[in-house]
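fyi for ur records
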Amino acid sequence: MAPLALLAVEPALAQDAAPAAEAPAAAAADAASVAFTFNTLSFLMSGFLVMWMAAGFAMLEAGLVRSKNVSMQCLKNIGLYSVAGLMFWAIGYNLMYMDVNGGFFGVPLPKDIPDPASETGGDYSVASDWFFQMVFCATAASIVSGTLAERIKLWPFMIFTVVLTGIMYPITGSWQWGGGWLSEMGFSDFAGSTLVHSVGGWAALTGVILLGARKGKYAADGSVHPLPGSSIPLATLGTFILWLGWFGFNGGSQLALDGFENASAISRIFVNTNLAAAAGVVVAMILTQVIYKKVDVTMALNGALAGLVSITAEPLTPSVPIALFIGGIGGLIVVLVVPLLDKLKIDDVVGAIPVHLVAGIWGTLIVPLSNADTSYVTQAIGIASIGAFTVVVSAVVWMILKLTIGIRVGDEEEALGLDAVEIGVEAYPEFGVGSQRV
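which gave:
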């Protein structure tokens, strides 16, 4: 009886051994699945936070333009976000990321979004990555909208947006994030102080020079006539929305949420991002009090944004004191550059050039202060090359538009407001007289 009993036990022992042998493989598969899930979730959540920045730009611009142009700014912002999405799917994503291989651009083909059932591996879902990268593209176009407000025609602006989001932004983005020649050189721009913000800033600067200032902004004697915006509460709301969205902008650029190190890194990025913005606000408030004897709320709002742009090139490696320094200089830049632009008669309606272009340059250039893997020379080369490319292509596109269909409304249309003459829907029809119509 004993041998028979042993024979009866053997199959059970063999069956028990099989799961034990498969356990490491199953554990590895579970770990990969968990990492895939968390990383995809990070892209999606960060992506919709950055998408919400489109609302922030819309509200900021709606508050800083005069009431007769508010509907136009709202239309431009929802239009440019939509165009950016279409162009980044049609050619932009693959132009930026497909087969760059140390070169200057990828392949301008539509992005393939795979069947979910086919995604059984990888670090994150393909669709989540596309969505996250797309909302960055839309941000670059939003920067141009505010600078050129109150006198640019709708359709030339939208045509420029097609070129910016489908060609210009993806090409310069490929140089770094797509593994292009700047990446090979060692250039570093963590979340886009230059690749997103300065690109938008250079495009805006080129456009505003060709477009000219608003009527009545600058007198013949060189004096500046303020043209107050319609709603400081809306502008403040827009700033807070942008501040919130920036946690997705910078935090999501860690590109992973799996494991202790990535989760900790995103947390540190949040802290540095928040404190840099706070430093920008406080510096702008103090400086305007000292210089003008009154605190300028619009400078404080732009001080927050400049602090955010400044820290975007490297939000992970700085210590808190360095993050405060970087963001504080962003606030200083706003207070000094806004009046400088007025002296040059460059009419930037919302202050996007100081915030996105100049603070973006500063933030990118100062990366080696906290990141020993970069150099000031390489950072300067990246800034100059991206700036030169964007200015040249922008100038060509703007000039073609100016010489063909025209980019600026007439004097009478500008006086009446773009809401009435360009789109026929006024934002505040009950406030049709008085200072609101100036």
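The two ends are 107 Å apart (CA to CA). thats all i got for now
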